[in-house]
User: Which sequence fits this backbone?
């Protein structure tokens, strides 16, 4: 692995397991296929504060830089069909501690 790859891998470590997994999965699956501009944007995204990055990836807020949106979308999709988001589905109601079947 190249030193630059090791640096990016280290920068993907964010302090929560969920964010670590999402960012590292993106780094392994999608980063090699990005063009130079997109790779640069991913590096800039990693410079953002953890609470902001989490809010953007979960869709709670829009990123300050709209150029981040395609990369954030790919990172979110690497969460295997929405496992990252803690927001209820549209029209649905979220009750903490309840599953879809109504059981705990």
Assistant:
């Amino acid at each position: 692995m190249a030193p630059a790859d090791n640096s990016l891998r280290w920068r993907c470590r964010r302090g929560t397991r969920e964010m670590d997994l999402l960012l590292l999965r993106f780094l392994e699956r999608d980063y090699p296929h990005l063009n130079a501009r997109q790779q640069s944007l991913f590096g800039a995204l990693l410079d953002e504060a953890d609470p902001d990055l989490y809010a953007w990836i979960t869709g709670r807020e829009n990123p300050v830089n709209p150029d981040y949106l395609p990369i954030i979308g790919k990172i979110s999709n690497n969460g295997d069909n929405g496992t990252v988001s803690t927001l209820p589905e549209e029209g649905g109601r979220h009750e903490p501690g309840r599953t879809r079947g109504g059981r705990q």
User: Anything to note?
Assistant: The domain at 14-77 is CATH 1.10.150.250 (DNA polymerase; domain 1).
